[in-house]
Design brief:
Largest sheet: 7 strands, parallel
Strand order of the largest sheet: 3-2-1-4-5-6-11
Strand content: 15-25%
CATH class of the largest domain: Alpha Beta
Bound molecules: NADPH dihydro-nicotinamide-adenine-dinucleotide phosphate, guanosine-5'-diphosphate-rhamnose
CATH architecture of the largest domain: 3-Layer(aba) Sandwich
Low-confidence stretches: none
Helix content: 40-55%
Structural class: alpha/beta
Number of helices: 11
Shape: globular
Number of domains: 2
CATH superfamily of the largest domain: NAD(P)-binding Rossmann-like Domain
Amino acid sequence: MPRAFITGITGQDGLYLSELLLRKGYEVFGLLRGQNNPKAQLVREAVPGVRLLTGDLADLSSLLRALRAAQPDEIYNLGAISYVAYSWENADLTTDVTGKGVLNMLEAARLYAGDDLSRVRFYQASSSEMFGKVQEVPQRETTLLWPRSPYGVAKVYGHYMTINYRESYGLHASSGILFNHESPRRGPEFVTRKVSQAVARIALGLQDELVLGNLEAKRDWGFAGDYVDAMWRMLQQPEGDEYVVATGQTHSIRDLLDVAFGYVGIDDWSSLVSQDEQFMRPAEVDLLLGDATKARERLGWTPTVAFPDLVAMMIEYDLAEQRKLAGL
Ligand code: NDP
Ligand code: GDR
């Protein structure tokens, strides 16, 4: 039975990846941080087969201890401070966890594997945020990186450190440069889920207004369930490498609002949505559009959920949840 170790187990991707690996017959271990993490129960209910170990990306010895207990063949480093807006307010912490945390995880993997590095494979959750200021459209593996946030800068550090461990030590290490991916499990601080929750509540008469930031930014949005499959495929290749994972379609926040409100029968949302400075970013990533040709050709990976279906999936989930919460 292959064994996998996942950091970021309580997050959106950690849950989908656990489900996928359990289906494939893996024994799955997840890293849980904190003294009494309230999300532990969520993981136990959503993926009961996962075994939880404690540790923190900022603490190398805790990572090494967890790896020695799990004895994994594959390590998926999904843990991070992942909310871009928060990273300006907590730049030091983001650097420590999202950036240096990658070095800690790589070094723990190297120490755990000892003399035989071929016993373990490593996946790093790199991000399209690394492209930042638009240099080339669509963005591909070779596009110049120009990050625009402390989060993006930290991800670039982790990305190159992962390449460096491959080149320095021969570790089978891959980075997935994943574009935005969403689902009903997406945190409510991210724009798609903020919109799907608000649209559901407005449709049910529970809320009157939605306050957002920049409506002009464009994102290449896919379904998280598809994207975790690309992670697994990367670790099944003979060599580690970098891969863009994206749908090849881009939409603005305005498009998202059109599709989301349209789904509940509201064609003109202009009186329901306002903008506020507090949700604007000091530096914006204006346009993300990925070219996933390499992932398609080498990994045989393709996305299966189109943008309107993704939005519908999230709104249906939120309608059901909001009805339940409101006792409707
Ligand atoms: P989430 O924000 O949903 O999950 C982040 C996870 O990281 C949580 O489990 C969180 O644990 C954990 N974490 C935070 N701080 C630490 C720490 N100090 N030590 C250990 N774990 C920690 O992210 P996603 O699931 O959406 O994303 C997974 C990864 O992929 C992240 O690295 C993200 O940056 C990256 N990524 C995501 C994309 C997306 O569109 N979703 C696109 C490209 C990259 P806790 O619950 O305890 O806070
Ligand atoms: P992003 O996702 O920054 O791309 O990072 P997010 O959903 O936060 O923002 C997307 C775009 O929407 C604009 N926006 C708003 N965003 C939020 N969160 N809240 C608002 O009210 C709002 N109004 C407008 C933003 O300015 C931005 O342009 C996500 C994270 O998952 C990262 O961890 C990951 O690496 C990247 O996707 C790829």
